[in-house]
Amino acid sequence: QVQLVESGGGLVQAGGSLRLSCAASGRTFSTYAMGWFRQAPGKEREFVATISWSGGTTRYTDSVKGRFTISRDNAKNLVYLQMNSLKPEDTAVYYCAQDRNRFRIGLPNEFDYWGQGTQVTVSS
User: Fold this and answer.
1) Cβ distance 105 to 50 under 8 Å?
2) pLDDT on residue 27
3) CA nearest to 89, candidates 59, 64, 66
4) Phi and psi at residue 18, in whole multiples of 5°?
5) Can you name the residues that pair with 3 across neighbouring β-strands?
6) Distance (Å, rounded) from C-alpha 29 to C-alpha 72?
7) In a 10 Å sphere around its CB, with 0-12 CB exposed, 13-18 middle and 19+ buried, how is residue 112 labelled?
8) Is 98:91 a contact under the CB 8 Å cutoff?
9) What is the mean pLDDT of residues 101-115?
10) Which residues pair with 71 in a beta bridge?
11) Distances from the Cα of 43 to the Cαs of 40, 46, 82, 107, 114, in angstroms?
12) 55-106: per-residue pLDDT in tens?
């Protein structure tokens, strides 16, 4: 069974930074696309960022472009989300996710494995 465990969330002032980490186990990590999603109270879960299985392709939702960076370290089975210039609108529970199949870019509707989430709160 795939296990994804997020860490790094917390409370930060607007304009600040956080780095989220996701530790993966259970499958061959380096062959799967990874992603970050978030869900705010009363809203649907939304795509934030994805990184392809090879690491060569990254994609971001428009609202975080230029501020967030997704990366992966295959030797450590880790995926990161570096979040800079945080805004109150970024407040949400952030979830790490893994593509259900290997060797893909990883489109938002292709992720079937999820972590427990980590809370990010940005104050103004």
Assistant:
1) yes
2) 86
3) 64
4) -140, 150
5) 25
6) 10
7) exposed
8) no
9) 96
10) 80
11) 5, 9, 23, 20, 18
12) 999 999 999 999 999 999 999 999 999 999 999 999 999 999 999 999 999 9
Task: Give dist(CA 70, CA 32) in Å, integer.
Answer: 14
Q: What is the 3-state secondary structure (H, E, C) of the chain?
A: CCEEEEECCEEEECCCCEEEEEEEECCCHHHEEEEEEEECCCCCCEEEEEECCCCCCEEECHHHCCCEEEEEECCCCEEEEEECCCCHHHCEEEEEEEEEEECCCCCHHHEEEECCCEEEEEEC
Q: Which two tokens stand for residue 124?
A: 């103004």
How many residues in total does the chain contain?
124
Tokens of 7: 């860490």
**Parallel/antiparallel/unpaired status of strands 58-60 and 78-83:** unpaired
Amino acid found at 10:
G
Side-chain half-sphere exposure of 66, counting CA atoms within 13 A = 3
